[in-house]
Amino acid sequence: MSDKRFTMGVLGLGEGRSILSAALNSPYWTVGNICDLNEDLCRERMEEFHLSRYTTQYEEMLADPSIDVIGIYTPDQLHAQHIKMALEAGKDVLCTKPLMVNLDDANALLECQKRTGRIVFVGQSSRYFEPAQRQRADYEEGRLGNLIAVEAHYITDARWFLERDWSHRPGFSWMYNFMIHAVDLAAWYLPDVSEVYGVGAVNDNTRACGLSVPDTLRFLFKEESTGRFATVGGAYASPALGSGIEQSISCTLRGDKGASRAGYPKLKYEHHFDHNGHHVETFDDRHSYYFRFEGETHHAGEYQNYIEQMARDMLAGRTPKPDLKEAIHTLAIMEAMEQSMETGKPVRVEDVLRDRNICL
Ligand SMILES: NC(=O)c1ccc[n+]([C@@H]2O[C@H](COP(=O)([O-])OP(=O)(O)OC[C@H]3O[C@@H](n4cnc5c(N)ncnc54)[C@H](O)[C@@H]3O)[C@@H](O)[C@H]2O)c1
Question: Of ligand 1's atoms, which has the minimum distance to the CA of residue 12?
């Protein structure tokens, strides 16, 4: 008998390819059905992963009682609607980042989740690459002493992303699609961020595509309850220095007994703890686990790590994190960041939540 405990239906088969590989290689998961509006892509994925069926109708997948969890990998602007449909159909939800592209649907989703009692887990993949997991474990074991500050960035030349039609539709922004990785890492360590301040610029490469969303951004987050702070950066529409010099994703923690840095896509973890010296760990033997297709712009390994965490949490009766409330808090931080760029002033996260009538 199979020990696979959970059956996933996957919606959106572009990056959804990575979650298919993740689920099919996981001892906890199997795939019940796949769905995309693009029938050619459905057939391609069905053949690639030796699946027996597909559908182009989301409703058909939702009506299938054998499916426990819907994995949502559709364009950012559609997540809120697709999550709501899944919850109403009695399914638990795994949704890729960003949960939503603003807070407009936050209260409706909170109400829907409360009423249906289902799980909403957000696939913040950057928490789940090997160096980030090691860094978190050392932090939780107290090896850094008291945390003082966090430096997180996501910097990548992502002009290729503007080939996607939905990157030109309202709701797309570099912040919500890309920078959320760095924001989430900072908020993971500073869960009580109270105030943000920052600047953003739009360069000609973004403008040439008819967009006016900031592509180069720097922020300061303050956590008043602890006195800790974070710097958070991003740059998406200009040449990057390359991962040999500057990792795309980097998270540095500074504590009074140690410092650590986790980087991606070069899987590298550096740390220096008092009395233990400087160490650099690389995970070259894990490269093929994390990157299963061409190049390094997909995230199959991180996805397998997060769905296995999700499965373990569900089996233990724990809520997999980040959950809906945590993800909405992160989006409130991002709305505060947008307001700070507009006003040139620090913005309090609680003011954003109050103005939106959101109670977490
Ligand atoms: N590291 C990460 O976590 C990570 C990495 C890449 C992409 N993503 C996220 O994954 C999502 C998808 O990105 P992508 O790069 O695969 O985009 P994509 O455009 O390649 O794929 C989206 C797919 O959704 C399908 N689709 C659109 N509307 C649909 C509908 N109503 N019903 C069924 N299918 C529908 C499209 O046909 C398309 O195949 C985005 O939210 C993106 O932010 C996350």
Answer: 24
